[in-house]
Amino acid sequence: MGNGWHEWPLVLFTVLGQTVVGALLVCAAGWASMKENVAARQRIVRMMFFLWIAMGIGFFASMMHLGSPLRALNSLNRVGQSGLSNEIAAGSVFFAVGGMGWLASIAGKLPLIMTKLWLGVSSLLGVIFIAMMSLVYQIETVPTWHTGLTTLHFFLTAFLCGPLFGAILLRAAKVNINGTMMSSISLLALLATVGMIIFQGVSLAAIHSSVQQAAALVPDYAGLQVIRIVLLTVGFACWLCPLMRRKLPLFAGMLAGFVLVACGELIGRTLFYGLHMTVGLTVAG
């Protein structure tokens, strides 16, 4: 799998960013459902600390991709014109609004209406962040990325990893909301992911340049995708099986399930970067 893992900073950045957005949506829904339970809402906000830690790790990884943290500011030079600049700007605004709002809420400086506004705006900024992230890879000269599957892949990661991460944070906050609904969303995302993998696997055979076959870029594509699906399935089983028996999933089981699901998506993202190819001749391979 060497063809994609060299982009590990981007693998971490994109998967963590999408996971955080998905989990934020779940936490915001959990917060809204608590209505008059002020103590539960405060516990949820405290647990959201881990969202911003994960986002911070993601941004740190993205700076590793730039080679030097000093280049980070240069990546913002062409906001509105460059997909990369738009992505970094959208992610920075999402991180800043989410993180600073969290700090204000923890400090007790946000009244109820402002907390609602903060969660709503942060969730919207997160969705925009994922959209901007996917547009970076809509490059006409990279036929394996220039497809709607890229956008679908990125949003599906948010619905695969996010709900389980959010459910873990809600459990840690001692808040019980409708886990069946959240797990159903992730199950639908899993089915969509399987369909996307099959479609992409078939499509790769028809993509080629004068010197490259897309199907040959990652020789272990099929095997690794099978491993990815198994990890996702087993991971969700740790969460879903107790719910199907009308029992509360164990925290340790949910945590183990999330690790498996996250590993599955990391493999999927590594394969995505491994499928990079350009049309036309490649000089010095």
Core attributes:
globular; 285 residues; 0% strand; single chain; mainly alpha; 10 helices
What does this structure look like?
The radius of gyration is 20 Å and the shape is globular. The protein is mainly alpha-helical and 285 residues long. Helix 4 (49-66) runs antiparallel to helix 5, helix 7 runs antiparallel to helix 8 and helix 7 packs antiparallel against helix 10 (251-274). 72% of the residues lie in helices and 0% in strands.
Report helical residue fraction: over 70%
The rough form would be described as: globular
Q: Supply the helix-strand structural class.
A: mainly alpha
Total helices: the number is 10
Keywords: Membrane, Transmembrane, Transmembrane helix
Transmembrane segments: 12-32, 44-68, 88-105, 117-139, 151-173, 185-209, 221-241, 248-267
Organism: Pseudocitrobacter corydidari
Protein name: Anaerobic dimethyl sulfoxide reductase chain C
What's the short version?
This is Anaerobic dimethyl sulfoxide reductase chain C. The chain has 285 residues and is an all-alpha fold. The protein has ten helices and no strands.
Produce the secondary structure layout.
Blueprint: H1 2-5, H2 8-33, H3 38-47, H4 49-66, H5 83-106, H6 112-135, H7 148-172, H8 179-204, H9 221-244, H10 251-274
Protein name: Anaerobic dimethyl sulfoxide reductase chain C
Pfam families: DmsC
Transmembrane segments: 12-32, 44-68, 88-105, 117-139, 151-173, 185-209, 221-241, 248-267
